[in-house]
Design brief:
Distance between the termini: 84 Å
Number of domains: 1
CATH class: Mainly Beta
Structural class: alpha+beta
Helix content: 10-25%
Number of strands: 11
Radius of gyration: 21 Å
Shape: globular
Oligomer: single chain
Strand order of the largest sheet: 1-2-3-4-5-6-7-8-9
Strand content: 25-35%
CATH superfamily: Calycin beta-barrel core domain
Length: 249
C-alpha cells in the first residue's frame, strides 16, 4: 500500500468515527484539568500574575446609569442589604463572569472537536466548539453562555463568543448590548499556570474594547464538588433590596 493510500485510509477511519483530524493543533498544550483562580500576592512572580485590566470606557449614556448603579450597590452593602445579584437570585453568572467566581475552581475537559468548561460555583457549563465557523450574532439565540467557537493559534486557544443576552451582567457588572463579542486567548504560562485573556468589544456600549486577564493554577487530583443554588431563604423587595425570609412560628 502506498503512503498516500495509507494516509487516505487513516483519514477515512477518523471520519467514520466522527473524530475531526483538525480538532487540536499538534503543538497545542493540554489544558484539561481543574484550575483554581490565582491572584498572585506579595512575593509572587510578576510573570505569573495577570496584568492590569485596561480602562472601562463606557459611552456617556451608559456610564451615567452604570455609576448610579454602583453607588446604589455600595449604599445597600453598607446597610447590610445588598442589592439582588445573580448569586442571590439563583441566576447563572454566565459568560464571562462564570470564569472567575471568588475562589471556586473551574474544570476544563477536552474531547474531539470540543472543549468544555465547568465551574464549581453553581455547576455552570459552557461548550467551545473547535474549528467551526461562528454564526452571525443575529442567528444565535440569546442566552447566558452564548455560542463559543475556538481554534488553536500555535500554543494559544482562541475562543470567540457571541449571543450573550443583555440581562446577563458583564465584567464588573458593566452593561452590554446584544452586539457584545468576547474573545479569549487561553495559554499556559507555565505547566501549572494558565492565563485567560478576555477582550470585550461592544460597539453599542463601549467607546473602545476592554481587556483583562484571569490567571489560574493547576489543582492536581482535585475532585469538583456539587454546587446547586437552592435559594428559599432570601427575597427581594420592590426596591431591589435583599432580605432574609423569617419563618413564622
Amino acid at each position: 500500500m502506498s503512503r498516500r493510500a495509507a494516509a487516505a485510509r487513516f483519514a477515512l477511519a477518523f471520519t467514520l468515527c466522527g473524530l475531526p483530524l483538525s480538532a487540536q493543533s499538534p503543538t497545542a498544550p493540554a489544558l484539561a484539568g481543574v484550575w483554581a483562580p490565582y491572584r498572585g500576592g506579595r512575593g509572587a512572580d510578576p510573570k505569573l500574575t495577570p496584568p492590569p485590566a485596561t480602562p472601562l470606557a463606557l459611552k456617556p449614556e451608559y456610564a451615567k446609569t452604570y455609576e448610579a448603579r454602583r453607588a446604589a450597590e455600595a449604599g445597600a452593602a453598607a446597610k447590610g442589604e445588598p442589592l439582588a445579584s445573580g448569586a442571590v437570585a439563583c441566576v447563572p453568572y454566565g459568560v464571562p463572569r462564570m470564569m472567575s467566581v471568588a475562589l471556586y475552581p473551574i474544570e476544563i475537559l477536552e474531547t474531539p472537536g470540543q472543549v468544555t468548561i465547568v465551574s464549581e460555583a453553581f455547576s455552570e457549563v459552557r461548550r467551545i466548539y473547535l474549528n467551526r465557523p461562528q454564526l452571525p450574532i443575529g442567528d444565535v439565540p440569546p442566552g447566558y453562555y452564548g455560542r463559543s467557537v475556538g481554534k488553536w493559534d500555535g500554543a494559544a486557544l482562541v475562543v470567540d463568543t457571541v449571543g450573550i443576552k443583555p440581562a446577563v451582567p458583564g465584567y464588573q457588572n458593566m452593561p452590554h448590548s446584544d452586539q457584545m463579542r468576547i474573545t479569549e486567548r487561553f495559554r499556559l504560562v507555565t505547566t501549572d499556570i494558565l492565563h485567560d485573556q478576555i477582550t470585550i468589544d461592544d460597539p453599542v456600549v463601549l467607546e473602545k474594547p476592554l481587556t483583562y486577564t484571569l490567571a489560574f493554577r493547576r489543582m492536581p487530583d482535585y475532585e469538583m464538588v456539587e454546587f446547586v443554588c437552592d435559594n428559599n431563604r432570601e427575597f427581594v423587595d420592590d426596591k431591589g433590596g435583599t432580605h432574609m425570609r423569617v419563618r413564622e412560628r
